[in-house]
Amino acid sequence: MAAELVRGQNHPLTRTRLEIRVSAGRPVVAGATLADDRGAVRGPGHVAHPGAPALPGLEVPRQAAADHRLAVDLDAMPEHVHRVTVLLALPLGTGGPTRFGAVAAPYVAVTGLDGAEVASYTITGLDTESAVTAVELYRRQGAWKVRAVGQGYADGLAALFADQGVPDAHALAGAVHQAVAQGLARTVAPAPSPADEPQVRAAATAGQAASPVPPAAPAPAPAPGGPPGPIDYTHPGRQAPPPPAPAPVAGPGGGPAAPVAGDATGWSMDERLYNQVWGMFEDLARTAAAYRSAVDFADSRMEQELDRVLSDPRSRIGGQADAARETAAAKHAALVDRAREALDRDLVQLVAESEVVEPALPATYAGWDNPCWHAYRSPMEIPMAVRLGELRLPESDSVGLRIPMLVRLPLERGLWIDAGASDPEALADADELRARAARVATELVARLLAAYPAGEFSVHVIDPAGTAAGALAPLADAGVLAAPVARGAAGVAETLTRLTERVDLVQMAVRSGAVDALPPGLDVAEQLLVVHDFPHGFDDRAVTRLRYLADEGPRVGVHLLLVADREDAAEYGPLLDPLWRALLRLTPVPDEHLADPWVGHAWTYEPPAIPDGSAVLRQVLAEVARARQERGL
To answer: Does the predicted model carry a pTM greater than 0.70?
Structure first.
């Protein structure tokens, strides 16, 4: 059971490869220091921050964000390192809060690589502080522990570094904030003022300036009024991948590096590919934001120039007005054309990378049309993630660029396949939309079954009226379900009772530290409950039990996948609103409803699609069934 720490409390660590997850509600800077047995940090080379994010056994994020994940490998720490201190700071010069007392209390969790939480700490009691040491991992008599610290500093990072004995603490604090500012400038460049000369600013695409700085440290955007510098459009930090990934090859004429599959940080090829895919997602988000920002600036500038000229009644008509309109339109077109050129260069590079990465993806990351599925075998261990579909933006439609949507395993949120029409013109036939939703649910269940070793993932299905029998047939025919599909009110009640009792038993065992005392026949595998056509067939008691599973189930390995039209549940009023909010909404047809955490783009989600006439789904399920039979399941 995860420990909820208070200031000063410690907790033993039984794992050495960890993630430290930070949630602050507002963008914060995350970093860490490495100290010796006396608690002293030997120098700036022992501080990981956005300008220098990687140290032996440690990697921190490269930019300010509301949520962070820091990777720690305690076995890879140098011998002299006895303390890893995680620090948080508010970014300077962004117009945001300048003290932690003005934001929600930051939440820090130490987890395993599987997402299982080891310890957590909510940093309360902060006021004027702009930097804080959150938690520390420390070595004592050969064993590692985590301690909740929560020490704040009103004078910011400089005071924090000085307190830890870092030489030239003020210079290091300035370097950290400069790296963060450069990253923000690269994300969406500020629009020039109307008084500037007509020139397209380097609207910070997804790349980093080609300047002599470490690959992980983003270079500053060109100064207003200055010419845009040469841009390298590869993802930040992916130009010098760790072994054994091959080094990138420079493009013709010293241009962007040739894409390489696995050209990202990570402990394994699967982890590097996972990070590379989400690096591409981030790149597309930023380059689209830069393009939109440039176009918005061009529109605004043209309007302001026309307003200035036409505000004088003497110049509203005649040749002078026509010339002003033509000049403003020409400037507008030039600005948009330059922005489009930068966007097109980014898209070409991302398409080239996608063409290299997609064929290299392992089965659970790959599309159904990837040949790797034909050689699929039941895995020996759980992968990092599973693919739930694809994501795209309007700017990428011209080149057909799609980014795989990868979600970490085990699932942190349940899934909801929305069988309701969000766009009435997209698919007029409600019955066909429901049928597609059921097919998408079946394909996602097959992917989840294929991702887990045999016997470590059990699937239960409730289909009260039997309306999804055709879509669910591949699962039922392959014999990969934990029990026959539950139908009717009795089947709904029996399945929900069985799963709620399992949640209760596991919770009690975990709380009492008596996991070994669980009944021998209890299925300890991860559980997935698929509910089709919810809430049909559910009475008030069944709805309450489903709410309980949604709230308590994920903590003990019980997850939900609903296939439902939310309007059908309107009779329950606001009772089910928390349920819908807790689930990740997916759609059976392309739909713009997902937003990224950086710039808030509305991404179009496309569900996984099996090629027409392909037998890949039944082949994969047959392999899952074979592996289960070998284990006597």
So the answer is: no
